[in-house]
Each structure stands twice: as C-alpha cells, then as structure tokens.
Design brief:
The protein is α/β, with parallel strands linked by helices and 233 residues long. Helices cover 33% and strands 18% of the residues.
Length: 233
C-alpha cells in the first residue's frame, strides 16, 4: 500500500515538531469516521507460531490504543462520555457556528467548533459529487472540517466521496483516507520510532532486522520468521 501524501495541520506557536520528526516529535493524531462495527479491537488469531490476517479497520483501532498515538472518533448519540469520542451539536445559525465536544483518553473534555458554518455549508452545496445526496456530502464535509479544527494528521473514513477521486483542496486538507491507507501512515510513523508491533498495541513485536528480513521474503515468510523468533533464547 503506497503511503499517501500528508498535508501538515495548522501549527501553533510552541508546538512540538510533527509526528515524523527525527526526534522529540509529537504523537500522531487520528480522527476515525467509521461505523461502530469497525471501531473494534483486532480479533484475528495470532500466536507465536501463526500470524493472523487482521481486518484493516480493526487493526487500526487497536494500534490507536497505543500511548504514542492520539485517537479520536466521531461518535453516535449517547457515546459522548467515552474516551476519544467526538460529539457534534446542531449548528447554531445565530452565531454561524458548529460546536463539538471531544473527550480525551483520560476523560477530560474539550469544547471546540467550526466557525463560519454557513460558508462551509455553501461550499458543500456548490461541490456535490455526481450521484450523491446533498445531505451525505454535507455530512462528509463537516467531518473534514472537524478534522481540520482538531488538527488531526489523518481522517479515516469509509466515504467513497472523500477518497474515491478528486476533491476540493479544503477537503484534501483533512487528509481523508481509507483504513488501509491510514495503516501505511501509521506503519511509517512507528518505524520512525523503531516500533514494530505485530499484535496491537504492544502484545507481540518484531525486532527491526527480523521485520526487514520478513518483508524482503514476502508474506509467506512472516509466520516462519515469527515462529523462529519465538524459539530463540
């Protein structure tokens, strides 16, 4: 899977370097916009002698539980108190503002918002892709603006409208991508930190040289390499 091009989110004064900096970089920030059935931990069968084949969105969700990855997700009604949840309010037409609340992994909550909501609503109305309902496209556009306001590095989505073709630059700024594409980004981020988890988040790990050895010999060698490591002293 090719690693998608990333557009850097807006940086504030005093911020740490980005997540791909050589040293002292900040955590990778991910916003997940997937159905609840795909926001589940990886349940593929993996053992010292056998490497399971995970479903991409589940592996991504599991990796997102690491301490060095900040994971948030667009929540369904009633999930506002769960770690990582991002809950959207109804637009305030009087203030031309869309408020949303994000909950961090430690339970602390933050009130944020999308300003000039009507302008983004108008932009969505003027850029509706073919064979798409206005409401579905507006919902996707709102997800991208939330990602931008949260300064997420990646927006993980199942929307074919956001990842299936050309999109306006103000949509691309959110770095929308599929779970498979996001895994390529996460893999690059973790390799930069010399982390090679095989069971997320930290249950089983390759050493750097064993990972490269396995990658050079293709998927068939992965199970053999894993078993060989398990038997070594």
């Amino acid at each position: 899977m090719p690693i998608p091009e990333l557009r850097a989110p807006l940086a504030f004064a005093g911020d740490k370097p980005g997540p791909f900096a050589a040293s002292a970089g900040r955590d990778l920030r991910i916003l997940v916009d997937l159905p609840a059935s795909q926001r589940q931990a990886d349940n593929s069968t993996t053992s010292p002698g056998r490497l399971g084949v995970p479903e991409p969105s589940r592996l991504l969700w599991s990796l997102g539980q690491r301490d060095d990855i900040t994971l948030h997700w667009l929540a369904d009604p009633g999930q506002d108190d769960q770690p990582g949840a991002v809950c959207l309010d109804e637009p305030d037409r009087g203030k031309d503002h869309l408020t949303f609340t994000s909950t961090d992994s430690d339970g602390s909550s933050w009130l944020r918002g999308v300003d000039r909501y009507s302008s983004w609503e108008a932009a969505a109305a003027q850029s509706i892709p073919a064979d798409c309902s206005p409401s579905a496209w507006l919902r996707d556009v709102v997800a991208t603006r939330v990602a931008v306001e949260m300064r997420a590095d990646v927006l993980v989505t199942s929307s074919r409208l956001l990842v299936g073709g050309a999109v306006p630059s103000w949509v691309a700024a959110a770095n929308p991508m599929t779970a498979e594409q996001a895994l390529a980004v996460i893999g690059l981020y973790l390799r930069g930190r010399r982390q090679y988890p095989m069971i997320a988040p930290n249950g089983l790990r390759f050493g750097e040289h064993l990972l490269l050895w396995s990658a050079a010999r293709g998927p068939a060698a992965v199970g053999l390499a894993l078993g060989k490591r398990a038997r070594s002293p």
